[in-house]
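Re: [ENG-882] Designed sequences occasionally contain unexpected residues at chain ends

Forwarding the minimal case from QA. Structure tokens:
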């Protein structure tokens, strides 16, 4: 509930009188600079005027002051994610679908999933300056454990986005904090142009029917690097295992992904790791390898997944 002292500001907002609303908020914040409601209102006023960067800073400050303030989390989600579509009724988005990690603490998350996020977080940590002022997106974040890993290990701010309302609800309970917010959104959606310092999207692109549109949407929203992972067609052949990957649309060769990133995004791969997760028999999945073998390695001929960093290369033709 917004305090009574802000009612005149809300009235100005309803009239779209942003100048008066911002003036009144600034005057009050001069006396009570740690008022989270006022900071949030000022962010909303700036967002309504298209002042995205300024709005973002006010909203994150409000969240730092009052991490339990629900409205500011919604406002941050609105800032970055637009024009959402309804989830497909044909897809199972529940936590019980078998496609999602569901543990509410990191010790319960399977090793191969943690390894990918750890690589992304540590790579970003060495390059984000200053980390606490950078914001990234974790697309298809599931129940949110990876978004929290990114924030904790890299020291950055993260907006986690997933199509499952159930997963986002669990994420908001288990993994949100003053640097991590979650938003339910089903692709296709629009991301605010050049609003993000980086993007992480692990085990995601193979779940999207129009993977080209997904890569373009990511690229247009991000000023910095994109960290992706995907199953490799060379070793995890989709046709042979399609019934076991019922939520996938396809797998990729490294050459295919390299070409897509160059053609669609003018990006090149600047870092790459490989990973083995499954035992195979005649090309078919036949259980998991021991946990100790799931760690990332240099890319090898038997790698089943690639984890890559894609960075802008102006020399590439669009």
């Amino acid at each position: 509930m917004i305090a009574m002292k802000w009612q005149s500001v809300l009235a100005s907002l309803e009239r779209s009188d942003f100048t008066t609303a911002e003036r009144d908020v600034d005057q009050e914040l001069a006396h009570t600079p740690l008022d989270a409601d006022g900071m949030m209102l000022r962010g909303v006023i700036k967002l309504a005027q298209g002042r995205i960067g300024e709005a973002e800073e006010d909203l994150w400050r409000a969240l730092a002051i009052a991490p339990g303030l629900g409205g500011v989390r919604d406002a941050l989600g609105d800032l970055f994610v637009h024009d959402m579509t309804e989830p497909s009724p044909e897809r199972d988005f529940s936590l019980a679908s078998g496609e999602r990690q569901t543990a509410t603490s990191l010790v319960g998350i399977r090793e191969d999933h943690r390894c990918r996020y750890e690589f992304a977080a540590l790579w970003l940590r060495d390059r984000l300056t200053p980390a606490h002022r950078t914001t990234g997106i974790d697309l298809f974040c599931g129940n949110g454990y990876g978004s929290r890993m990114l924030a904790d290990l890299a020291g950055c701010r993260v907006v986690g986005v997933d199509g499952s309302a159930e997963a986002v609800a669990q994420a908001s309970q288990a993994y949100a904090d003053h640097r991590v917010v979650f938003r339910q959104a089903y692709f296709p959606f629009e991301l605010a142009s050049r609003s993000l310092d980086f993007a992480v999207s692990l085990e995601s692109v193979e779940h999207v029917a129009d993977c080209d549109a997904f890569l373009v949407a990511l690229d247009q929203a991000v000023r910095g690097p994109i960290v992706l992972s995907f199953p490799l067609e060379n070793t995890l052949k989709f046709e042979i295992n399609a019934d076991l990957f019922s939520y996938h649309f396809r797998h990729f060769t490294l050459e295919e992904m390299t070409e897509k990133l160059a053609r669609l995004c003018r990006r090149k791969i600047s870092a790459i790791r490989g990973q083995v997760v499954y035992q195979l028999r005649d090309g078919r999945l036949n259980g998991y390898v021991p946990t100790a073998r799931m760690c990332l390695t240099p890319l090898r001929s038997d790698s089943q997944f690639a984890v890559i960093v894609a960075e802008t290369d102006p020399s590439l033709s669009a």
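QA comment: On inspection the terminal residues look reasonable. The mean pLDDT is 93. Proposing we downgrade this to a documentation issue.
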